[in-house]
Structure formats: C-alpha cells, structure tokens
Amino acid sequence: QVQLVESGGGLVQPGGSLRLSCAASGIIFSIYTMAWYRQAPGKQRELVARIISGGNTNYADSVKGRFTISRDNANNTVYLQMNSLKPEDTAVYYCNMVHGLYNYWGQGTQVTVSS
C-alpha cells in the first residue's frame, strides 16, 4: 500500500523559514517524480516545485530563489525548504508523486505565515 506522510507545517512569521518533509512507503521511490503543490483558501491547487528522478528541478516563479526542493532516495523522502516566507505563501501544502499512470497524493500540511 502506497503512503505519503507529510510533516513540518506550522505557523511562522513573515521572513521566517520552514522545512516540509514527505516520507513515502510502498513504492520504488527513486523512479518517481516528486512535487509539492499548495492550495490556498478559495484558490486552485498550484505546483510549487518538482524534482525528477535524475535530480533536475523546477519551481513556480513565485517561489524561485526562496524555496528549495530536494530528495533523499535512500530514505524515500522529499523535502521543501522554504525561506523568506510571505503571507501569500499561506496554504495547505501537498506532496505528490508520479510515475507513468501512477499518481499519489499526501494528506496535506498547513503552512500559515502571519505576524
């Protein structure tokens, strides 16, 4: 059974940092493209960052230079380091993994940026 378990969300002040983690089980992690999406209230879910099996990454323009996605294939975990957080980064963040027709989502973790 495939499971994605996210952690690391919370409340942070503007300018602060958080690191999200997503631990996967039940799959051959290294072959999957991993991504983080987010969904703010009243808005559509949007891609934040993606990392393919070979390690190449891409980011939404709104987070470039502030967020970094990385993966640890030995521990089946993908991370999202978020720096210089802004109130507009407030959302539920979801971990996603894709390989061919296989597409899995985590349960989401809330990130709130507020003073």
Short summary:
This protein has 115 residues and is mainly β. 0% of the residues lie in helices and 54% in strands.
> Biggest β-sheet: count, sense, barrel?
7 strands, mixed
**Low-pLDDT residue spans:** none
Radius of gyration: 13 Å
Oligomer: single chain
DSSP summary: helix tally: 0
In whole angstroms, how far apart are the ends? 40 Å
SSE series: EEEEEEEEEEE
Number of β-strand runs: 11
Task: Specify the structural class.
Answer: mainly beta
Q: Strand portion, in percent? A: over 45%
User: Overall mean pLDDT score?
Assistant: 95
Polypeptide structure, described:
This protein is mainly β and 115 residues long. Helices cover 0% and strands 54% of the residues. The protein has no helices and eleven strands. It has strands spanning 3-7, 10-12, 18-25, 33-39, 46-51, 57-59, 67-72, 77-82, 91-99, 102-105, 109-113. Strands 2, 4, 5, 6, 9, 10 and 11 form a seven-stranded mixed β-sheet that branches. Strands 1-3-8-7 form a four-stranded antiparallel β-sheet, with no helix packed on it. Strand 9 (91-99) and strand 10 (102-105) form a beta hairpin. It is globular.
Keywords, separated by commas or semicolons:
single chain; 115 residues; mainly beta; 7-stranded mixed beta sheet; 4-stranded antiparallel beta sheet; globular
